[in-house]
Amino acid sequence: MRTRAFFGAAVACAMLALTVTACGGQSASSGSSSPSTTVATTTSSAPTSTTPAGPACTADQISVTANFGSVPTVTLPKTCSTPTSLLSKDIVAGTGTAIAKGDTINADYQLTTWSNDQMVQQSFGSQPFSTAIGVGQVIPGWDQGLIGMKAGGRRLLVVPPALGYGGQAQQGIKANETLVFIIDVHTVTAGSAGN
After folding, report:
1. Domain range spanning residue 171?
2. Would 108 be classed as within a structural domain?
3. pLDDT, tens digit, for every residue of 139-178?
4. How far apart are CA 53 and CA 79, in angstroms?
5. Are 63 and 30 within one domain?
6. Do 90 and 177 belong together in one domain?
7. 55 CB-contact burial (10 Å; exposed 0-12 / middle 13-18 / buried 19+)
8. Which end of the chain has fewer CB atoms at under 10 Å, N or C?
9. What pTM was estimated for this model as a whole?
10. Tell me: the pLDDT tens digits for 115-150?
11. 133/130 Cα distance (integer angstroms)
């Protein structure tokens, strides 16, 4: 009788753990939980990994493959601290039209999160991403960091939380995360605020 009661309690606890963190343990999240439940169970929004002390990393310390149009490989440095300002570096200099405020780009991108060095999104190998730049359709890091980039180029953008998603967690992205983008711009179409 006691075994049956224990088994029933264990099953009930396991069922509950699928929907919320309970029974003294943490359930693995698929990323589909709402930000409000994440905030309630998170004790800190700072990255849990140990970040080296010292000067902030620079764009030159991040290694990126230079094959425009192919899936990039990104290697983040381990000997410097997380950047706190927007970093931009052309890995491949484009030769086409330069992006101006209001222009629409057609681009491929890859997103890696700094705190855990994980690629969380990309469009390479699927449909390129199309958006206007400099008019608030994308995060401020893109609006600021892509102006002047030329079509045919690959750019590294390191976006601090204030210019990314800030304190708002996204699927696969923690709140207050530093974002590392590799962006290949295929075409630039002049917008209403363009030349």
Report:
1. 59-189
2. yes
3. 999 999 999 999 999 999 999 999 999 999 999 999 999 9
4. 8
5. no
6. yes
7. exposed
8. N
9. 0.72
10. 999 999 999 999 999 999 999 999 999 999 999 999
11. 10
